[in-house]
UniProtKB/TrEMBL annotation:
Protein's UniProt name: DUF1906 domain-containing protein
Gene3D superfamilies tied to this protein: Glycosidases (3.20.20.80)
Region described as Disordered: spans on this chain: 1-23, 47-66
Native species: Nocardioides endophyticus
SUPFAM superfamilies to which the protein is assigned, alphabetical: (Trans)glycosidases
Family matches, as InterPro entries: GH (IPR017853)
Length: 345
């Protein structure tokens, strides 16, 4: 959720919507990047003052729940996903699994989220060097841990040590991961492996998103992190910017959601209404929501739990705000089943 503003990625080419190919250009969208900087301090982009206008969809217009149809049988796809994880020695959960949550949430609970920015300085990919930012506040009762070093197909370089920190502090934990635009090389490598028709543009992109998810599952399990849910972070990713085609972007996100589901995880969405619509249009996965309020306050984060801030048709679970170089989180009113969202360490 923390990152530096940056340039968009170079143009890349994807597959055609049929067996014939057509280019998918990744265009630098200055207005979109400005919107990201204004709206959100998050897993991979700029800051927000929390004053942006809410972009609410017309409730009378049905929103699509998918942009591409899987061609594989669901059970076959699930078994193939588990087989692929087995190849990476990540088919089963870590043996030292944490226990179920014993905390009863009769009021909003304070927590925090961490990822590569909290790693010791100087680690990570060149575009996302780690920052050594502070870990969550002592009063935090849970932590949402980032799996990537910014974009998809990268790993949080100190994930294992962060999981150890959570164990030492006996906190509740769950996971999040950035979903990002794959480049041409990633689509070529992963586009035919998954439950979608890789001979089409959208199918190849969805399969690549699917593989982003399975790569993150392998990362999570290798680090010994257990989580009942993976929150998908959907926003602008400087240096790895989304394309201008919201349908194509939606295919990547839909594919990632299917990948986590086939690996045995619930999914949630982290974003804002404006950023979600800018990246994937009116796609509505109707997944639980973790809503960002940027550099504001706990009161504003709780305000985001309201219906006016719905992102893609899901219920509000967490609100997030930024204060003192930390990403802070609060459970939304009415969220009482903490074990549905976190594991106790």
């Amino acid at each position: 959720m923390w990152a530096r503003p940056g340039r968009s990625s170079d143009a890349t080419e994807g597959r055609g919507r049929t067996s014939a190919s057509r280019p998918i250009a990744l265009k630098q969208r200055a207005a979109a990047l400005v919107a990201a900087a204004v709206l959100l301090t998050a897993c991979s982009s700029g800051t927000t003052d929390g004053t942006a206008e809410v972009v609410s969809p017309d409730p009378s217009t049905p929103r699509p729940t998918a942009v591409v149809t899987p061609t594989a049988d669901p059970e076959t796809a699930r078994l193939q996903a588990l087989a692929q994880l087995a190849e990476q020695k990540a088919a089963v959960l870590p043996t030292a699994s944490p226990s179920k949550s014993t905390i009863a949430a009769d009021a909003p609970l304070l927590g925090g989220d961490i990822s590569w920015p909290q790693c010791p300085k100087g680690m990570g990919i060149p575009e996302r060097r780690t920052l050594g930012l502070p870990m969550p506040l002592p009063e935090a009762q849970y932590v949402v841990v980032g799996l990537t070093n910014g974009p998809g197909f990268t790993q949080n370089p100190c994930l294992a040590s962060q999981v150890d920190w959570i164990r030492q502090h006996h906190l509740l934990a769950s996971a999040y991961a950035v979903v990002s635009q794959p480049d041409a090389a990633a689509v070529k490598e992963h586009g035919t492996r998954g439950p979608f028709d890789g001979a089409t543009d959208l199918g190849a992109l969805a399969n690549t998103g699917y593989q982003q998810a399975l790569a993150n599952v392998a990362t999570m399990r290798a680090a010994g992190l257990t989580s009942p849910i993976v929150w998908m972070d959907v926003e602008h990713v400087p240096d790895f910017e989304w394309s201008s085609d919201v349908e194509a972007n939606g295919a990547v996100v839909q594919g990632a959601a299917r990948g986590y589901a086939d690996a045995g995880y619930d999914i949630g969405v982290y974003s804002t209404p404006a950023l979600w619509r800018d990246v994937v249009g009116d796609l509505a996965l109707k997944a639980p929501e973790w809503r960002a309020a940027g550099q504001t306050s706990q009161a504003e984060a709780l305000e985001r739990c309201g219906d006016d801030w719905q992102i893609q048709g899901g219920d509000a679970v967490l609100g997030q705000w930024v204060e003192g170089q930390r990403d802070l989180d609060v459970t939304c009113p009415g969220v009482t089943e903490i074990g549905q969202w976190f594991q106790q360490y």
